[in-house]
Structure formats: structure tokens, C-alpha cells
Amino acid sequence: MVREFEEKYGIILGGSSGLGYASALKLAQHGMNLIIFYRASRMQLPEIEERFSKIKEQNISLFTINTDATREDRLDSNIHQIKELLENQPIYLLLHSISKGNLKPMTGESVLSSGDFQQTIYSMGISLYSWVSRLQQEQLFAQPARVISFTSEGNTKPMIGYAAVSAAKATLEAINRNIALEFAPFNITANCIQAGVTDTESLKRIPMYDQLKSESLKRNPNQRLTMPEDVANAVYLLARKESQWMTGNVLKVDGGEFLQ
Known about the structure:
Strand 4, helix 4 and strand 5 (141-151) form a beta-alpha-beta unit. The chain contains eight helices and seven strands, in the order E-H-E-H-E-H-E-H-E-H-E-H-H-H-E. By secondary structure, the protein is α/β, with parallel strands linked by helices. The chain has a seven-stranded parallel β-sheet, with helices on both faces. The protein is globular, with a radius of gyration of 18 Å.
């Protein structure tokens, strides 16, 4: 396997499971050194550490930090840790794979509050800008550098219980476009990946989980759900030097699910 990312460093926000973890493993297989931020309880740690061991087997430098990467009040300490770990090595890739939001309906007994909206939109949308802006201010990005984030079909399609996340994804995409525009002078590209329905822990939290799966299987011309590895392959392609002229996009990675 070609290790074209050797001596390059990437940061993954939310890399202990799902799309973030699959992407981390793929990038590590091609030689990228990684700093992974994740949030887990003590009970979850053994399983997560086992996953991380598979990344370490790729003969890369792996640093893992168990903290809430969406907390703006922790950004200073997170940046300080990154500086110490990098030892003047620049960051080639920032992957935003944060899944932290409120899945409540707008009507009924337990409904969305304005606070639920604010927390979700910040965590899954605005935090992308917070990280990119701060890393650039600290001159930690390489030239060129990549910013990649994950959106979903919920950006335009309404679903019961998904309003706050839908608003966050719309925010994320707007921020992605402007990062592509305003950080272009720093040789930074920014793209969102819109994955098809993928059977991850995040999907299982959605109230319409079973319905989403069955409808997606009917719609997809390949007659299967999107897998985390499918999305990881797209992250790898966007990280390659040949993607330099691609920026400001929302790229569908769903096996044609959107066609129907």
C-alpha cells in the first residue's frame, strides 16, 4: 500500500467510532500521523482502546485526547496540547466528525428548546469554524491543508426529531463554503461529505432509525446501506494532492441513494 501521507499530521474531531474512526484507520494505512479527539466514559474506554490499537498497528504516531472538542472554553488547552504533541510539525488535515446534538421533536411532551438548538448548532456546525479559525491564527496549518466535515441528507430533508441537527448541518455547510472562500489565500481547501444512510451509533439515536434504514435500502440502486469504509475512502481521496482544486463542495457519498 502506498503511504503517501507519511510525515503528514491530521487532527480528527470525533474519531473513536463511526465515520471518524473509519477515516482515521484509512488515513493511517496510508501513513498519516494522527491526533484524535474523542469523548468517552470509563466503561467505553476498553472497546475504544482496542479500536485505537488497530490504528497504531499501521506504524504511525497516534495521540488520543479524551475531551469534549465542542467546548469552546477548552479550546485554549486543546490547542496547547496540540502544539506540544506536534513539536513544530504542521497540520495537513482537519476532519470534523462531531456528532453531538439533540434529537427531540417539535411537538409533544419533551420538545426542543432554544437551548437545544443552540447547543446542537454550535457543536455540529459552528465548532468547525472555531477550530479552523484558531488553528490558522496559531499558524498551525500546513500549506496546502485540507478541512473536511460530514453533513447529511437532513440538511434539506425534514425528519421528525431531527430539526436541531438539520439546522446544524445547514450551518455547517454555510461555514464550509465560506472557509473555502476566505481561507483560500492560506492554501486551505474545505469540503463537506454527505454520506448516505450509514448504520452507526449516531444513526441508532435517531427516532426514525428503522424507517430510515428500510427506505434507504429501497432507494439505493446498489441495494445496500453506505458503510463507514465508503466514506473513509472519500476522505482519503479528498486528502490526496490531486484534490487541491476541489473546494467549497458538498460531495454525496451514498452509492446513488439520492437519485430516487
